[in-house]
């Protein structure tokens, strides 16, 4: 069983690796043996330190993924440092909250660009290299709002629905090339993304009341799912959106 989940010698790029779920997943991949390319807007020095404490290598790449322009540079830096990319985790994402009737074009475009356009073009850039190699896993971070509309977050819901569909579209094309493309749809997790919800006592209570597990998720709760989808244990999974939500969707 051990070998199925072993990532020793594998190289993983994680976007948005400085905080929250991205940091948690990077550490989970490091625990399983992977070396890491940590991508973020402000630098991931804390995550890098923790990865190195686990005996793994880490490259910290600062890049603003609100446009696609830094993607090629990141891929080249990863290849220069490690010679290959085995795993891509498209995690970086933002959310904007406002009623649909007054939602701005800027809040629409910025969310759609980072949350879905960058996911597609980052996957495309990495897949070009992966096709030359044997080990190939792409994991996109979607959301429960791929299945539900959410409240006051129209561009976020649209962008995460797009991530789920994109995951299936890429899987249909690339499964035959040996690239597993799958997604994780996290439930309500305690990170910066959900701080306003947790600070709103009414919303916070109504969310908690609906989670069968009776608590918000944490970045550690994604470690098992990310290692599973990044490892050989999921070799026959393609285009799947794996919900990790304490039971929210079962309700
Ligand atoms: P977070 O705000 O802590 O993390 C967002 C990450 O994206 C940060 O690391 C940030 O540096 C990075 N980022 C933002 N803008 C960027 C840019 N322009 N360029 C590069 N990186 C940028 O929140 P989180 O909850 O950890 O979110 C991580 C992912 O998980 C997001 O895609 C989010 O939509 C998704 N998600 C979160 C939840 C939740 O409940 N927290 C639920 C479902 C999905």
Strand order of the largest sheet: 3-2-1-4-5-6-7
What's the overall geometry?
Answer: globular
Can you tell me the number of structural domains? 1
CATH topology heading: Rossmann fold
Bound molecules: nicotinamide-adenine-dinucleotide
The radius of gyration over CA amounts to 17 Å
Summed up, the helix count is 8
**What's the CATH H-level homologous superfamily?**
NAD(P)-binding Rossmann-like Domain
Q: Roughly what fraction of the amino acids lie in strands?
A: 5-15%
Largest sheet, strands/sense/barrel: 7 strands, parallel
Briefly, what CATH class?
A: Alpha Beta
Oligomer: single chain
At CATH level 2, the architecture is: 3-Layer(aba) Sandwich
The structure class reads: alpha/beta
Number of strands: 7
Low-pLDDT segments, ≥5 res: none
**Percent of residues in helices:** 40-55%
Tell me the span between the first and last alpha carbons: 32 Å
Mean pLDDT: 97
Brief summary of the model shown:
With 251 residues, the chain is α/β, with parallel strands linked by helices. It has helices at 20-31, 45-53, 71-82, 105-130, 154-174, 195-199, 201-210, 223-230, and strands at residues 11-15, 35-40, 58-62, 87-90, 137-141, 180-186, 241-244. The mean pLDDT is 97.
């Amino acid at each position: 069983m051990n070998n199925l989940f072993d990532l020793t010698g594998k190289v993983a790029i994680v976007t948005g690796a400085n905080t929250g779920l991205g940091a948690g997943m990077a550490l989970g991949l490091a625990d399983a043996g992977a070396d890491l390319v940590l991508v973020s807007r402000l630098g991931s020095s804390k995550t890098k330190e923790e990865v190195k404490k686990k005996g793994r290598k880490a490259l910290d790449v600062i890049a603003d993924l609100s446009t696609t322009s830094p993607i090629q540079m990141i891929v080249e830096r990863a290849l220069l440092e490690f010679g290959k990319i085995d795993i891509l985790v498209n995690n970086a994402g933002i959310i904007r909250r406002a009623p649909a009737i007054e939602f701005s074009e800027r809040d629409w475009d910025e969310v759609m660009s980072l949350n879905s356009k960058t996911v597609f073009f980052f996957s495309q850039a990495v897949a070009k290299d992966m096709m030359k190699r044997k080990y190939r896993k792409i994991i996109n971070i979607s959301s429960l709002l791929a299945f539900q509309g959410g409240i006051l977050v129209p561009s976020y819901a649209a962008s995460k629905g797009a991530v789920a569909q994109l995951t299936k579209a890429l899987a249909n094309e690339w499964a035959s090339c040996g690239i597993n493309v799958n997604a994780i749809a996290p439930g309500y997790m305690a990170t910066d993304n959900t701080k306003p919800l947790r600070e709103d006592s009414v919303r916070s209570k109504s969310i908690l009341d609906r989670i069968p597990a009776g608590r918000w998720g944490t970045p550690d709760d994604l470690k098992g799912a990310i290692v599973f989808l990044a490892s050989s244990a999921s070799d026959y999974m393609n285009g799947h959106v794996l919900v990790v939500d304490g039971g929210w969707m079962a309700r």
